[in-house]
């Protein structure tokens, strides 16, 4: 913790705030019950003039904004004015709060005067905290928005992964012929609980509607590993919804996670992601036909990014060069979500 800079406290008369030193300064600030867009705050105060407190001023700043001026009563609404209520007090749904973001907070007590001005205490010490990821409630809201535009289901039979030739050579020579897991990057929604945490391998399953086959173009490399869909997706796996986003284009992406039942990836997802019925959902399904064979379908109007949470042996499929182009502009590596899109954003966070 650090003491708020005296020069930043700005309790000047020109802001309509008068100084009254005897108001108690908040001490030992504690933050609890942190979610992606809310937190509870409480503190200790000595009893002198406590009964005169009518309001609390809470100075909330993103941590990177270290040089912002302290509270000005008529300033932008990152500075909250709250009536004095029993502590702890909940700060919820404020537009300034985003998921997985570091903030600083300081508190001032105030007494509203008869002329509408405020007498205020000194600022408390500054403390830091970080908001949480999206909960399953928020992810379910995202999922419901994605379902609206998913479109009809198209048949598919293979998963595929494009990379450079060197990637597959390294898997053969240094990784015992296996593609190993890597940590999910920061693409997609800022509040996604899998970004920077879940380990897996990205695959695609989208097909071209006129051929029923994977497209020959790719943003990720000219070599494609392809394997039968049942090698990754079956009744032995669980399926989870992880994200819904776009990158300032008309294309919308949904991230799904396939996890072998009982695996470490499965346990991670069970605690954080909405589970999908593998045979009945709007994104990607695995069901049995009349002959007991597995049949697979994907949503036509979404680009699906599928994360598989176990290593995959190259002997399960084939590697070949694609005939199309490498469309780098469509890469989603560390891509930032468009926060203004009404189709794929929910009301909390960004």
Q: How would you spell out the order of helices and strands?
A: EEEEEEEEEEHEEHEEEEEEHEEEEEE
- The overall pLDDT average reads 86
Q: Shape from CA axes?
A: elongated
Rg from alpha-carbon coordinates: 26 Å
The poorly predicted ranges are 1-20, 68-77
Query: What's the total helix number?
Result: 3
Structural class: mainly beta
How widely separated are the two ends? Answer: 28 Å
Percent in strands = 35-45%
Q: Which bin fits the share of residues in helices?
A: under 10%
Major pleated sheet: 7 strands, mixed
| Number of E strands | 24
Domain Fibronectin type-III: 25-134
Function: May play a role in the development of the central system.
Organism: Cyprinus carpio
Protein name: Phytanoyl-CoA hydroxylase-interacting protein-like
Brief summary:
By secondary structure, the chain is mainly beta. Helix content is 9%, strand content 35%. The chain contains three helices and 24 strands.
Task: Explain the overall architecture.
This protein has helices at residues 136-149, 165-174, 264-270; strands spanning 2-3, 17-19, 27-32, 38-44, 55-62, 79-83, 89-92, 102-112, 118-120, 125-130, 153-156, 158-163, 178-179, 182-183, 199-203, 223-228, 237-246, 252-260, 275-276, 284-288, 294-299, 303-308, 312-313, 318-321. Helix content is 9%, strand content 35%. Strands 1, 2, 5, 6, 8, 9 and 10 form a seven-stranded mixed β-sheet that branches. It has a six-stranded mixed β-sheet with strand order 14-15-22-18-17-19. A three-stranded antiparallel β-sheet has the order 3-4-7, with no helix packed on it. It has three helices and 24 strands. Mean pLDDT is 86; it is low at 1-20 and 68-77. With 350 residues, it is mostly beta strands. InterPro entries: FN3_dom (IPR003961), FN3_sf (IPR036116), Ig-like_fold (IPR013783), PHYHIP/PHYHIPL (IPR042868), PHYIP/PHIPL_C (IPR045545). Pfam families: fn3, PHYHIP_C. May play a role in the development of the central system.
């Amino acid at each position: 913790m650090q003491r708020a800079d005296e020069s930043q406290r700005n309790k000047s008369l020109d802001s309509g705030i008068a100084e009254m030193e005897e108001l108690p300064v908040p001490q030992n600030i504690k933050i609890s019950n942190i979610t992606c867009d809310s937190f509870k705050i409480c503190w200790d105060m000595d009893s002198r003039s406590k009964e005169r407190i009518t309001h609390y001023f809470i100075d909330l700043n993103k941590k990177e904004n270290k040089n912002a001026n302290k509270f000005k009563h008529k300033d932008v609404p990152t500075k909250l004015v709250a009536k004095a209520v029993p502590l702890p007090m909940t700060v919820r749904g404020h537009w300034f709060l985003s998921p997985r973001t570091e903030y600083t907070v300081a508190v001032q007590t105030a007494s509203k005067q008869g002329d509408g001005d405020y007498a205020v205490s000194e600022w408390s010490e500054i403390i830091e905290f970080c908001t949480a990821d999206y909960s399953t409630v928020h992810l379910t809201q995202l999922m419901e928005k994605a379902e609206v535009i998913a479109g009809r289901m198209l048949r598919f039979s293979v998963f595929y992964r494009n990379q450079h030739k060197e990637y597959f050579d390294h898997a053969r020579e240094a990784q015992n012929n296996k593609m190993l897991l890597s940590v999910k990057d920061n693409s997609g929604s800022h509040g996604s609980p899998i970004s920077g945490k879940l380990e897996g391998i990205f695959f695609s399953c989208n097909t071209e509607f006129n051929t029923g086959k994977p497209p020959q173009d790719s943003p990720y490399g000219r070599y494609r590993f392809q394997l039968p869909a049942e090698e990754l997706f079956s009744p032995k796996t669980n399926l989870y919804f992880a994200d819904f986003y776009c990158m300032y284009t008309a294309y919308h992406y949904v991230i799904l996670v396939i996890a072998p039942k009982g695996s470490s990836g499965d346990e991670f997802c069970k605690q954080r992601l909405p589970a999908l019925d593998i045979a009945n959902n709007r994104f990607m399904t695995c069901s049995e036909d009349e002959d007991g064979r597995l049949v697979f379908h994907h949503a036509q109007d979404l680009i699906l990014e599928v994360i598989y949470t176990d290593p995959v042996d190259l002997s399960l499929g084939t590697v070949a060069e694609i005939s199309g182009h490498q469309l780098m502009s469509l890469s989603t590596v560390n891509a930032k979500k468009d926060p203004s899109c009404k189709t794929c954003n929910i009301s909390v966070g960004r």
